[in-house]
Write a structure and sequence with these properties.
By secondary structure, this protein is α/β, with parallel strands linked by helices. The protein is built from six helices and ten strands. The radius of gyration is 19 Å and the shape is globular.
Length: 244
């Protein structure tokens, strides 16, 4: 609880990942992706309840072992790979509130696919939501200048072109205004934002900028990279700050 407001964490972890089968159960540096979320949750002081939204019994069991409750199963109708986060979060909130017999004021989504997440960033995201009286706060990372929109290209047929013609004027990266991308570390929102506005990005949404490197797990390469980075951190290296 924070300033009298209750906080529910939802961990979306379906079992049907196509790119990496049962991705949420994959171990990275000796700990499954789902279990790593539980490790972070224990370090965030404001969380009143944490539940996993899954359609898979093994994921539910691993989540419970990590301290994340699994009091319901996600319905088949919202378990496909084309279902958005909104439907999953609304279902998880409604099912948890029905089971607990209470309402939650703040919902925080923690996706297992961000194994580099730090509890400090989750905590700061919740604090910003409350202190600034916002509808939502997303964690973001600054995009490396090599991935800036004004440096991106398109291919149409046999023609290579700039994605944005303003890119012709860019000579040095210092000319590029910073842009940011979502990193999946945390999404925090009010109940009103989710249930009435039905969006993750409400009318008043702000960002918490994460300065350490983040890896979002989509491929086997991502897992190998996360394994490498986490093993270096385990050997005593400090997490480096992300630079453009």
């Amino acid at each position: 609880m924070i300033n009298g407001q209750t906080v529910l964490v939802v961990v979306p972890a379906r079992g049907g990942s196509k790119g990496i089968p049962l991705k949420n159960l994959r171990e990275v540096a000796g700990r499954s992706l789902v279990a790593r979320v539980g490790d972070v949750i224990r370090e965030v002081p404001y969380i009143d309840r944490a539940v996993v939204s899954t359609d898979h019994d093994k994921i539910a069991a691993v989540a419970e072992q990590a301290g994340i409750a699994a009091p319901f199963r996600r319905p088949e109708a919202i378990s496909g790979d084309r279902i958005g986060d909104i439907d999953v979060l609304i279902d998880a909130l409604q099912q948890t509130e029905r089971i607990d017999g209470k309402t939650y004021d703040i919902i925080v989504m923690l996706q297992p696919t961000s194994p580099m997440r730090r509890a400090a960033d989750v905590t700061a995201t919740i604090e910003k939501l409350v202190s600034d009286k916002l509808d939502a706060v997303w964690t973001v990372s600054e995009t490396d200048s090599k991935g800036h929109p004004l440096k991106q290209l398109t291919i149409e047929g046999n023609r290579l072109d700039l994605y944005d013609q303003r890119g012709h004027a860019i000579i040095a990266r210092q000319q590029l205004a910073p842009v940011y991308h979502r990193n999946g570390v945390a999404y925090a929102m009010t109940r009103d934002c989710l249930m009435r506005q039905k969006t993750l990005m409400g009318t008043r949404t702000a960002a918490h900028v994460v300065t350490t490197h983040q890896i979002s797990i989509d491929t086997e390469w991502d897992i190998a990279l996360a394994e490498f980075v986490l093993s270096r951190l385990a050997d005593g290296e400090k997490p480096g700050k992300k630079t453009a």
